[in-house]
Design a protein that fits this description.
The chain is mainly beta. The chain has one domain: Maltoporin, Chain A (Beta Barrel). About 5% of the residues lie in helices and about 55% in strands. It contains four helices and 38 strands. It is globular, with a radius of gyration of 25 Å. The chain starts with 6 loop residues before the first helix and ends with a strand.
Length: about 725
């Protein structure tokens, strides 16, 4: 464990003091007669939010006075608010219109993001953005109500981000930023960041029942009735799915949330408890030759005992105070997390007798908090906003390891470590409106990490500290004719697995190992434009560049991520959201990126699973006569699978659709058709060495794929009250 004399322990003590002071102040404020200040603005979550576009509002009754409808989501042009062309917001209405196969596909509403899966339904999805194979979250920062989702030093991969605990109907907005230009965003921010914000008060109570092919079933009940001085939001969700696999997935997911939110004068509070459990069987990626030789079918498994179980439980407290000159925001959270994951990617390569199945175990408690203060001022007649923030996190990991197993039975322990990873980040940001057409945003953040590892291999134990500074600069020009121009520069970083930082002996081969840097810097620049000159159309164009000192790449041999050489990427993104009429919405997003390893990197210059071209488009309608629906297409281009460029995965194009009808004001029925044209593509492909039973001991180099799921139909009934 970290020694008490270490400076990070002092920061930990400071965090506890800040937390205690924050809660004491919040409770004290609640008990006082504290009238709203003249310029106080209620929290966005405390207003009566507009219902999603295809949801009739229960307030629409004769004699009812409706709140002003606030435009949110991509229809809001963000002119005057954004600091780059590659940031935006998606609203609840846009999320409600889309048919989803997987929970992680909520992120596909962000232009350029691709979500796939190479394993079972309870496992974190595979993320792709800006030429990054983000694996399960290695270079994208994801949070829910300021609570981090990414898990550093995770058993299955650095930055592992499982979004299966999210309930889509509870998401009010999804904010996104791409590139390392935002001082508030710290670790895992190279490709971008995504922040989910949940409702405090739902537009309506909702009960949803869904069913479909391949054993799909879903039940949801949620509401946020008035209780005392505030509202109690509750929700329970159950999902079951078998999938098209020969060996049924038998996936069961349980989600629950309780949130009590209230306001007192210019203070807004919420206390939230969330619980999630899942268990499943996996059909992992399989060797192409096993399908070609008839050993298994396309949806068959080479190890039917793969699978897993996971839990994520959290408790959080949130306090916002609207001051005369700005806002104070305190967020505190605690998370209990567990994962037991059984995988077999190489079959019989290392152990020809028992096979190569392994269990990855991760058990941890995460404690943390965020404190920010914003000041709105005037300097020499110029409008100025200053922001200061502190972010503290402590991952207490009593067990992170790997076991060699057969049919989920323990054969031997390979890695069994205890880790404590503590971090503190501080940032300052200054925004000045110099003229009506020119604004600057300057910021810097500093991060300090302490890695403490107690390994089952003595040579891999130890303590290390790393620090990094990340300056940011954004220049905003305009608006002219409802158009703004942006220049952005900045640096960001991702952390490496604490075990890799301190590793001197490879636990698999017992050979000498080269340790990784604790924190790895990325440097980026972007030029862009945002316009809403055409009525109803919001369009953004971005040209971006990014360098990273060390890349995290997936290793099919170990099932984890390894630090590779430095990389360089650049690209262009063009995103469009158009609402020509109140009942029709169109969107189309095109993203191209080029990436390669730089410097001397013997394996080659191609970045495995780096997707160059992504295109997505859709149309959604909400007709006056009660019919609603959407049609979407997503294309991602071919991608190299190994560094020398000798193996490639082909492109993929998928269509999904939804059609529904408002039977009554409070009752909807809908039909989703996923993979409409039954396209036989692959969600993911890798190229590495594996061995089937009876093959040469050295194994065979081959493609390994996880097929796209075939066409399937899902029906749902939604009752609102």
């Amino acid at each position: 464990m970290i020694h008490s004399s270490h400076p990070c322990r002092a920061f930990s003590a400071a965090f506890k003091t800040i937390a205690a002071l924050g809660i004491a102040t919040a409770i004290n404020s609640y008990g006082q007669d504290n009238p709203a200040l003249p310029n106080a603005v209620p929290s966005a979550n405390q207003t009566s939010p507009a219902a999603p576009a295809n949801v009739p509002n229960k307030l629409d009754a004769p004699g009812t006075t409706l709140d002003e409808v606030v435009v949110t989501g991509r229809a809001e042009d963000l002119i005057g608010m954004a600091s780059s062309s590659s940031q935006g917001e998606i609203g609840a209405g846009e999320l409600a219109q889309r048919p989803f196969l997987r929970r992680g596909e909520l992120l596909e509403t962000i232009p350029g993001v691709v979500i796939t899966q190479h394993s079972g339904d309870g496992k974190a999805n595979q993320y792709f953005l800006r030429g990054f194979d983000l694996d399960h979250g290695s270079d994208i920062n994801i949070s829910v109500d300021d609570i981090p989702v990414n898990m550093p030093t995770h058993a299955h991969g650095q930055g592992y981000s499982d979004l299966n605990f999210l309930i889509p109907e509870l998401v009010e907005t999804l904010d996104y930023q791409k590139g390392p230009f935002y001082p508030k965003i710290g670790d895992f921010s190279g490709a971008g960041a995504a922040q989910f914000h949940l409702f405090n008060v739902l537009p309506e109570g909702v009960v949803n029942v869904g069913f479909g092919e391949n054993g799909y079933a879903r039940f949801l009940a949620a509401d946020s009735p008035k209780l005392g001085p505030g509202n109690l939001l509750y929700a329970f969700e159950f999902n079951h799915y078998d999938g098209p696999w020969v060996h049924a997935e038998n996936s069961n997911r349980y989600n629950g949330i309780l949130r009590y939110s209230w306001t007192q004068g210019n203070d807004a509070f919420s206390l939230t408890a969330m619980a999630y459990h899942a268990d499943w069987n996996s059909t992992d990626q399989v060797a192409q030759r096993a399908i070609d030789e008839g050993i298994i079918s396309r949806f068959g498994s080479l190890d039917p005992t793969d699978g897993g179980a996971t839990d994520r439980d959290s408790l959080s407290f949130d306090w916002k105070r609207q001051e005369k000159d700005g806002e104070t925001h305190l967020n505190l959270y605690s998370i209990y997390y567990r994962l037991n994951l059984f995988s077999n990617f190489e079959y019989f390569l290392d152990d020809p007798v028992h096979g190569d199945q392994f269990e990855q175990i991760d058990k941890r408690v995460v404690l943390g908090g965020n404190l920010t203060r914003e000041w709105d001022n005037q300097w020499l007649g110029k409008e100025v906003k200053n922001t200061v923030g502190v972010q503290i996190r402590d991952d207490i990991i009593p067990y992170v390891g790997i076991n060699h197993t057969e049919d989920r039975n323990l054969l031997n322990t390979v890695v069994k470590d205890r880790v404590n990873e503590f971090s503190i980040g501080m940032f300052v940001q200054n925004e000045v409106q110099w003229t009506p057409w020119f604004k600057t945003q300057i910021g810097v953040r500093g991060d300090l990490y302490n890695f403490d590892v107690n390994a089952n291999i003595a040579g891999n134990s130890g303590n290390a500290t790393a620090a990094i500074a990340s300056p940011k600069l954004s220049l905003v020009f305009g608006p002219w004719a409802k158009t703004e121009l942006y220049l952005d520069f900045g640096t960001g970083f991702h952390s490496n697995d604490a075990r890799g930082v301190l590793e001197t002996i490879d636990p698999n081969t017992v050979d000498k190992a080269v340790s990784s840097a604790g924190l790895v810097q990325s440097r980026g620049a972007e030029i862009g434009a945002r316009t809403s000159i055409v009525p109803g159309l919001v369009s953004t164009l971005s040209f971006w560049y990014l360098e990273t000192d060390s890349e995290l790449v997936f290793d099919g041999d170990s099932g984890g991520t390894d630090a590779a050489g430095p990389t360089r990427r650049y690209g262009v993104e063009w995103a469009n959201f158009y609402k020509p009429t109140p009942w029709l919405t169109l969107d189309a997003d095109f993203c191209y990126s080029h990436g390669n390893f730089t410097g001397y990197y013997p394996p080659g210059t191609f970045i495995p699973n780096s997707i160059a071209t992504v295109f997505s488009a859709g149309a959604s309608l909400e007709t006056p006569w009660g019919v609603f629906g959407s049609l979407r297409v997503r294309y991602f281009g071919p991608q190299p699978l190994i560094e020398d460029g000798s193996a490639w995965a082909p492109s993929s194009t998928l269509f999904n659709g939804r059609i529904g009808y408002h039977v009554r004001k409070d009752l909807d029925v809908a039909l989703d058709v996923l993979n409409i044209f039954d396209t036989k593509a692959n969600d993911i492909e890798y190229y590495y060495t594996s061995r089937l039973s009876g093959e040469p001991l050295d194994g065979v180099n081959d493609y390994h794929l996880h097929p796209t799921e075939p066409r399937q139909i899902r029906a749902s009934v939604t009752y609102r009250f």
